[in-house]
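Much of our argument rests on the idea that a fold can be written as discrete symbols. In the encoding step, the backbone of a single protein was reduced to a row of integers, each denoting a local shape. This step matters because it turns folding into a mapping between discrete strings. For completeness, the protein is quoted in full, as a sequence line and a line of structure tokens:
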Amino acid sequence: MMEGPAMQDSSTMSLADVTFSSIPKVDTSLYKLSPEEYVFFKAQIGIDDDEDLKKHILEIQAKAYEIAPYPCIHGFAFLSVMISTYPEYEHILKLGRERPDAVLLDIGCCFGVNARRAAADGFPAKNTIASDIINEFLELSHELFRTTPASYPGCHLPGDVFDPEFLSIAALSDDVSPAPAIDLSSLKSLNPLHGRISAINATRFFHLFTEEKQLHLAKALAGLLSAQPGSVICGNHVGSLEKGVVTTLISGSEYRQFLHSPQTWTSLWDGEVFEKGTVKVETELVEVAVQEVQLLMMRWSVMRL
């Protein structure tokens, strides 16, 4: 996530590099969890009653919306446990079980629910990092899941991915030897992890930025990735059949954002970020209903060979 919406003029605001025309009021009727998400949140939060769970989540949502009225907070997408739906998920869990000191980074994570899901499914929690520019979201993660930094060992690391003091672009690692253990709780930035991270999740993140910034972000994340074969970056975001700036109307507000197509997204990673032929890129466009609008979501992964 990037900074909260800022006024551009009397009728336009921005969220990162996405411009939109208004901030809708909270609509609790949009609250919805999948059966799998109900099971996950009930188990992790410790609330078994549906209405009690809803009340708890709505209280957290209200606090988050005051901090930054993102569309993902308004539409409850911050609760979506996407990582477990990716074809690479079992591979990521296997890395956590079998690769010494494998690290999972959930970048632009909002409340870090994807890192929590991976930890619940066996990826060592102490080797997970949930990172977002808004530290209050990371603090609300503890409130949502009823944990504390002492009771939940996952690392919460606030920071701006475009600040080189937090994440600089580094040369791609070619060292395939196992990375030595590192105490993630001591981190102040992601830079000490260049070439050390086994898996990176970037859910609903890249589409917040311009074409130029998406390339910068891809290069920055690639520099974090371990050179060991099977190291993977995966995620999803809004895509398009053809790359370009697209305007979408959701809940009465117009959103303008730059979107990649599967072809341009593949060529960005395989040939521009990584040397061509050194990674396997997979993409899939899926039509998804977001409130009253049908969007093309691009699920993707980049795996080092």
Observations:
- The two ends are 29 Å apart (CA to CA).
